Give the backbone structure.
Amino acid sequence: ADLKMAHNLLLQADDLLKQMGLEARGVEDATIKRDLLGKVRVCKTRLANLRDDYEAAKGFVERNSLGLNNTDSNGNRNNNNNNGGKERLLSNTETLRSQSDTLANARSIMAETESVALEITEELGRHRETISSAHGRVRQVTGMTNRARRIVQSMGRREVQQKLILYGVGGTILIVFLMLVYGMFR
């Protein structure tokens, strides 16, 4: 019962570590993200140590249940010939358990890699949206600068036209004035 509860607690801790990793990768600030991912790595190491302790305790309990402990109830060594077969059985069981753990670990790593890949895909999608939005803003700014350039050119043309008209009116007034002065003195 205690081993089952410990196993369940280890599974819960593993799930929590996965959630912590996802949350840490989702943080925008790079320094905070690096600190959080470091803490997640420390927790993963501690969980691995606890898992090793659990496996050792589980092996000890299984050895005792098969009667493979090397001491009797008085603490004296018990060298029974039947222990060879039991040892081989236990060795085969350990090999199978090790292979099962390796497969479970590979599945876990594959699931974690898949979740990281999904996060990266989502982040790339957000970046694509940001880039397309920026591209749209650049087009708007380009359109506004083209319109502003046309307005400035139009203003420049009007200025030249107004100067020509002003010079023309000024020249006409000067000619009329000179004609009046000439006509008065004549």
